[in-house]
Amino acid sequence: MMNKRIEAALNDQIQKESSSSQFYLAMASWAENNGLNGTAKFMYQHSDEERFHMLKLIKFVNERGGVALVPAVPQPPVEFDSLERVFELLLEHEIVVTESINGVVDVCLQEKDYSTHNFMQWYVSEQLEEEALARGILDKLRLIGGDKGGLYLFDRDLENAAAQATAGMGGQPA
Ligand SMILES: [Fe+2]
Ligand SMILES: [Fe+2]
Questions:
Q1: For residue 139, how far is its CA from the centre of ligand 1 (angstroms)?
Q2: What is the 14 CA–ligand 2 centroid distance (Å)?
Q3: What is the pLDDT of residue 29?
Q4: What is the reported pTM?
Q5: Between the N and C ends of the chain, which has fewer C-beta atoms within 10 Å?
Q6: Ligand at shortest distance from the CA of 131
Q7: Domains of the chain, CATH where assigned
């Protein structure tokens, strides 16, 4: 049997990864409908990665004698004010997720569950990468401002970034 506090913390994290996946899927769809095909590809892929994060947790909970709860999926926003706003929201969301992961790690230490603590370290480093990526993209967008040519190049860069990540499957759990 899995420690109940650990089980609850991991199930809460499963819910957060699921909501990340849906949120980025909504951003992908918005980008696609606004002529930002590179951004759409990037977001579809990011959404898939969040689903992998969720699956990895579900399997871990079940393998350790817990019961993973598959979360309900509330509808994310349909409209976004701007591309810059999209990435601001993405960064804000990742920061909330990082805090949540730190919370799980904290529970692991309180409950002296060192194997779950060890498992969670993958998420700790993944969050560092994702926050850095989101901050870098946001910096670029702020530099570009309203420049159409800059935006075109930005969107193409994201398309290349998405293609590279697909080729390497970087950071995706088995
Ligand atoms: Fe995630
Ligand atoms: Fe994430």
A1: 21
A2: 12
A3: 98
A4: 0.92
A5: C
A6: 2
A7: 4-168 (1.20.1260.10)
